[in-house]
Amino acid sequence: MVSPLDFQLVNAARQGDCQTVETLLAQGAHVNGTDLQNTSALMYASQRGHREVVQCLLLAGANVNQQRPFSGLTALMFAVAANRVEIVQDLIIAQAQINQTNDDGNTALMIAAYKGHKEIVTHLIAAGVNVYHRNKQGDTALKLAIKGDHPEVIDLLPNTKSELTHRQALVFAIRCGSLRVFRALLTSETDINIPDNEGETLLSLAASEGQTAIIQALLAAGEAVNQRDEEGETPLHYATVEGHLEAVRALLAGGANVHLANQFGDTPLILAVVQGHSEIVQELLQYGADPNRKNYGETPLTLAIANGNLAIIHTLLNGGADPNTRLPNGRTGLMKAADEGNLTLVHLLLQTGADVDLKDQTGATALMWGSHRGYVDVVKVLLEAENVNLDEKNNSGYTALSLAQYNNYPDVIELLKKAGAS
């Protein structure tokens, strides 16, 4: 239960009212009392930069190392986070424990490093803070400075190379998307084209992480845009698989080759289709990707049809994909659509030039498949196609009409007979 005097003390400290603070202390308010948020007067004064109040509370015996429950924050940490340099100095002189940690395992230095408070970092280091302490996630002040993208803080930290090699620091900066740090680390002596043990380059990593600005920095520094890893994949493959559209655009603008396939025969376009990244499919086609290139009998269009992705199918057809390309089982997309009753796809393929009379390995046409399944709307659309042959027979001697009769689809039978089937 918070006493009225303690509550008034905390409120006065928060507002920077030093005279009221002194009066309340004289009336018996507890100097370490807290409000309903478990925050003490010293914590508020430190956070809000009320230095006179801080000094008054310290003289009154405030516990400089008191921690707020459930967060573990101290007055020093509040002051550091708010970049209150002079108050940080006052608290250090008042014997604040500079290596004290909050509930996340972070010290005051780690907070300052992440926020980029350069002057406070300098004071804490001078006071003997442990620069190598790791929080509960395993991060040190150095890693937090990289995460916060503060190269100026990194320059202040001692012996950084004993913690991270130059390459490790570059990789960590890429993963964090820390452009300023990355640029500071990227010197003329950096060999950016050297891959890691798996053949992955810095550019490939940036591509997989979708770090567009870092990609542009690497390309400007001369990294090879089409360098392959051990599986034959280029940075464009990496960006495509992860669906990073802006990264793909940056690589394409930097000269990435859309035709290169990995060791499995997959081009970036095939990967974009498989992953369902329609905007990347569009982008790759604009840069000349081949929509009819086959890999193990599959083309981008057959893969899109197999996945049922109408948006990508439409994009591929508009980009020059052959509407009559065959799936590995010998069927065309139109036959598959008719067999599955996919009226939208039937329309789309017919509009882009699909041949209604082509046959599969069983001798069946799209009309036969639609009639065999009893899809009235599909049969109706196929009958509207020019030069549809009603009397074609499959390898077993069945026509579209005889298949409908065999399966007893009266509505389909009626449609076919009206169209002239006999």
Can you walk through the features of this model?
With 422 residues, the protein is mainly alpha-helical. Among the domains are: 1-97, Alpha Horseshoe (Serine Threonine Protein Phosphatase 5, Tetratricopeptide repeat); 219-322, Alpha Horseshoe (Serine Threonine Protein Phosphatase 5, Tetratricopeptide repeat), CATH 1.25.40; 336-422, Alpha Horseshoe (Serine Threonine Protein Phosphatase 5, Tetratricopeptide repeat), CATH 1.25.40. It is built from 26 helices and no strands. The protein has helices at 4-15, 18-26, 41-48, 51-59, 75-81, 85-93, 108-115, 118-126, 141-147, 151-154, 166-176, 179-185, 202-209, 212-220, 235-242, 245-253, 268-275, 278-286, 300-307, 310-318, 333-340, 343-351, 366-373, 376-383, 400-406, 410-418. ANK repeats lie at residues 37-69, 71-103, 104-136, 198-230, 231-263, 264-296, 296-328, 329-361, 396-422.
Kindly list the characteristics that best describe this protein.
422 residues; mainly alpha; Serine Threonine Protein Phosphatase 5, Tetratricopeptide repeat; elongated; Multifunctional_regulatory; ANK repeat; Ankyrin_rpt; Ankyrin_rpt-contain_sf
